[in-house]
Amino acid sequence: QVQLVESGGGSVQAGGSLKLSCAASGSIFSISTMSWYRQAPGKQRELVADITRRGITNYADSVKGRFTISRDNAKKTVSLQMNSLKPEDTAVYYCSQGGSYWGKGTLVTVSS
Fold it and tell me: HEC profile for the chain?
């Protein structure tokens, strides 16, 4: 049984930083691609960033150069460091393992 629990969301002013973390349970974490998605009010869920089991990363154009995804296979965690936050980054952020398992999300609010 895979469980994903996100933490680290909150409110921040534009230009600030937040770090999201996702703790995973289960035995397949180390071989899974891990992803962060987000969903803003009234919008579809979108991919923010993902990282393969070998550490290859991919980012949405809107966050390139500002966000950094990383993982620790020994601790079964994946993190998202978010810098230079913008009001348009406001959303619920979800952790996903392989696109099959999802956390409940953590809210990030960026005020101007």
Answer: CCCEEEECCEEEECCCCEEEEEEECCCCHHHCCEEEEEECCCCCCEEEEEECCCCCEEECCCCCCCEEEEEECCCCEEEEEECCCCHHHCEEEEEEECCCEECCCEEEEEEC
pLDDT at 15 over 90: yes
Say which range, 28-37, 40-49, 71-80, has the weakest mean pLDDT: 28-37
The CA distances from residue 110 to 13, 36, 81, 82, in Å, are 5, 17, 15, 11
> Using an 8 Å Cβ cutoff, are 92 and 106 in contact?
yes
If you average pLDDT over residues 5-14, what whole number do you get? 97
